[in-house]
Structures are given as C-alpha cells and as structure tokens.
Amino acid sequence: MADIGLVDTSLRDGNQCVWAALGVDTARTLSIAAVMDRVGFKALDFTTSTHMGVAVRYKQEDPWERIRLMAEATPNTPLQFMSTGFRFISWETASPEFMQLVFTTLARNGIRRFCLADPMNDSDANIACARMVKRGGGEFVIAALVFTLSPIHDDTYFAECAARLAASPDIDSLYIKDPGGLLSPKRAATLIPAIRARIGGKPLELHSHCTIGLAEQTYLEAAEIGINALQCASGATGDGISNPPMERIVSNLRALGHRVDIDDAALKIVSDHFTAIANSEGLPMGRPQGFDASYLTHQLPGGMVGTMRRQLAEARMSHLEPAVIEELGRVRAELGWPIVMTPFAQIVMTQAVLNVTGSTRYATVPDEVIRYAIGRFGRPTLPIDPEVLDKIEALPRTAELREEPSMAPLEDLRRRFGPGLSDEEFLLRATMPAGQVDAMRSAGPARRDYFPLARPVLRLIEEITRRKDLHDISVERKGFRLQLRRKAKESC
Fold first, then answer.
1. In this structure, are residues 66 and 446 in contact, taking their beta carbons and an 8 Å threshold?
2. Which listed site, 224, 228, 283, 455, has its alpha carbon 20 to 30 Å from 315?
3. C-beta of residue 230 within 8 angstroms of C-beta of residue 220
4. How many Å apart are CA 286 and CA 284, to the nearest integer?
5. Which of 296, 140, 272 lies closest to 211, judged by CA?
6. DSSP 164-181
7. 334 CB-side CA count, 13 A
8. Which residues are CB-contacts of 18 (< 8 A; sequence separation ≥ 6)?
C-alpha cells in the first residue's frame, strides 16, 4: 500500500468554491496558521493573483503582508501560489518581464511552491513560467494537466502533455487538475498509468471537485494506482463544489490500508476552525453532491450554473435553460473544445446564452469571445469552426480589438506609476484601479486575531449599543461579567 501525501486547499480553492473567495481574510488565516503547520501537509494551497485582488478590493488588506505573515507562521509547510498562464490579477496578457517580476516578488515574500495551470494546457507556456519561477528564487514547481472531457482530450493527449512537462528540469512535479469533477474512477484507471509511464518517476498529484459526486471514489482509486498526493479541503470548505473533505479521505485511505502520516489531532482542530468560521459568519457549508449526468455535457463550474440561471430568470427566460445547456456543448465544439475553466467557462456560457436568446446564432459576439478567437488567450486546442470564425472576422469590433495595445513594457509602467514604489505596490497598481489600492493602504495593517466563537457576542454588543433606549446593560455567566453603561450627556 502507498504513502499518500496531502495538500490542504481550504484557504484557496475551498474558500473560493464554497465562500466565493470572500470567507477568508488575514485574521482568519493567521489564527489557524500554527496548527496547519503542525498537521504535516505537503503544502497549503494558499493564494492566486485573483485572491490577491480580492484581498485588496473587498477586504482592504495587503495581500503581500498576508503572504509574509503566513510564511513566518508556517515554516514547515510550503505556501502555494497558483498561476494561470501569463497573467497577474487582471486578465490582460502580461509580458515575460512582467511575469518574471511577479514570480520573483512572490518568492521573496514567502511563496515556496508554484502551481502552473495554463487553461489551454500550453506546455510551452508552463515550461517558460517554470524557468522564470526558478530564476526568481521559487523552490518547487508543480505543473498542471487540466482535465476535461472532449473528443480530443484522451489519455494519449494528456500523456504527451505530461511527457513535455516532465522533461523540463525546472518542473519538479505534476498534477491532474480536474476543475469540473469530471474524472471518474474508471477513467482514472487508464489515465493515471498512461501519465505515470511518461513522467520518469516525477511525483504525480490529483486535484478534483465533488461537483457531481465522483471525486471521493476517484481519489481512493487513484491511491491504488500511483498517485503520490491528494488535494483536499477541511471542515466546511470541503464537499459541495469544492474538493473532497480532508478528514473523510484520510479515514477511508487508512481503512483501505494506505499510510497517511499526519497529526490527527491537529487536523481536527483545522477542520473545526473552518466549520466555526461558517457557523459564526453565516457562511455556507459544503454538502455531498448527487450525480448529474447533464453536467458531463455543459461542464460549467457550479457557480457558473447559478449565474446562468440567474441571468435567464432576470430576462424571464428560465424555460430556455435546456436549450442553453445543449447550446453550450455546440459552442464549445465550434470554439475548438476549450477547457471549461476561468476564463473559458464564462466565455462559452455567455456566447451560448446569446445564441439562444438572440435572433440568430452569433448575431452578438462579446469582446472576450473575439479576443479568444484572435489568440489573446493562447492557441485553441483545435482550430475554430471556419464558419464561426468567418462571422467573427467580419465584425467591425474584431478589427478594433486586433489593434488593442498589449501591456506596456515594464520600464514604461514603472515610469507611469512612479520610481519610488516597492515592487509589491507597483504590481498592484499596474493591475488594479488606483482607488482600490489607495483604500487598502488607508485601511492600515490587517487585523491578526480572530475568535469565531466570540462573533455572536460581538454581534450582540454591536446591536444593543445601537439602541438609544438602553443605558445600562449587564451580561453575566459563571466566571464572566460584562457591564456596558452609556455615558450621560453633560448639560450645558
């Protein structure tokens, strides 16, 4: 039986799937950091450029400070940054010199493990990024094989991608990234051996989602046939459309005879922490999902299904959902079978809705679909259907977007934002609205302490102190007494 390592995804992917990337802040992260460091995880799936943008935009917190503080608190467990191609925070394609600065700055602030997940499985792009990471001081690179179902994404396709990635001396490990939770135990039984045969002994990990109820069984099958590590989420951040729940996976692996070398007591504290956050803040909890065969056709991430239904309901066209689901498969085929992950999930869904609700198919083509067609997101796996491409090429907007300027050279950007900025602040200002960065800086250092069990009491205090008819409030229990007295107004 195998030794199986674990990567915890609670702070990044679990938070994103179950809590829309908004459930975690610096305090909620640091308050469990020391315990997470004791568990024995191979790594913590910690952040992406999108999550860094969320920290600035919605939390008014410095994401670089969060990385530094967490790295100091978890010296035994590498923090992972996931990169999706040549981009940072914005979806604008970045220059190689800009991405080199990104990777170097991340490594300097405490990111030790870099996950490269190109949404088109562009091996050349991943290899180029891996070279930059190592040049910038990154310790470990794990490259993704982004899984999907299509007529062209067979075992041979993934094995050949894996061979190209494994041949790079800058890539230390590979993993199968299954954002849709589409990988079944039956498919894993052929896919994993095909990949292992081409990667020369480099470690192989698996990352899947519980969206249609396949992931847990697939994880257990994968442990039998050569997977070295599994990526799971803890407590309330597991299950649902998130990753398999950590404690249940550990229990089942051991029941099947596999070795999982972790601190069980520390793992329980971690799981309880994320469940306590959900209970205290009124956040959702991941729940086991049933099988949905229609998902195999449209493959939209769970959050995108909700967005589609909301858009149709707002237009009073909910009855068109079956037609949109069917159109999703047709659009995906016509666009060269893009993998249904950000940003392609949004691109395919938007075009499908427009095709069903418009006068004719492709009567309206959004800018992002045009950018995809003209290569701004990389090279499609297969050529776009000629008739569809002709329609896009004939649009006046296509000519305008071809002339759209690419990201300015790094030196020009430096001059634009001022020579005195640190690399950290420069990277934020080059990719985000100035007002959002200003608001973050004005907010000052982030809170570092968080006690989820105290939140109900704090909310009670906030509510009763807003009442003008209460002047003297006393809360008592054994060993505790809280006295609040409103200060009387002085007479003139």
1. yes
2. 283
3. no
4. 7
5. 296
6. HHHT-TT--EEEEEETT-
7. 21
8. 233, 236, 237, 240, 241, 242, 283, 284, 285, 286
The C-alpha angle with vertex 31 and arms to 28 and 37, in degrees rounded to 5, equals 115
- β-strand 204-208 against 173-178: which pairing, if any? parallel
Q: Quick one: pLDDT at residue 492? A: 40
What is the C-alpha separation between 132 and 291, in angstroms, rounded?
A: 41
Closest CA to 171 of 147, 146, 145, 197: 145
Residues whose CB is less than 8 angstroms from the CB of residue 389 and which lie 6 or more positions away in sequence, other chains included: 373, 383
For the stretch 42-58, pLDDT in tens is 999 999 999 999 999 99
- Cα 200 to chain center, whole Å? 29
Mean pLDDT, the chain, integer: 92
Tokens, residue 212: 């249609």
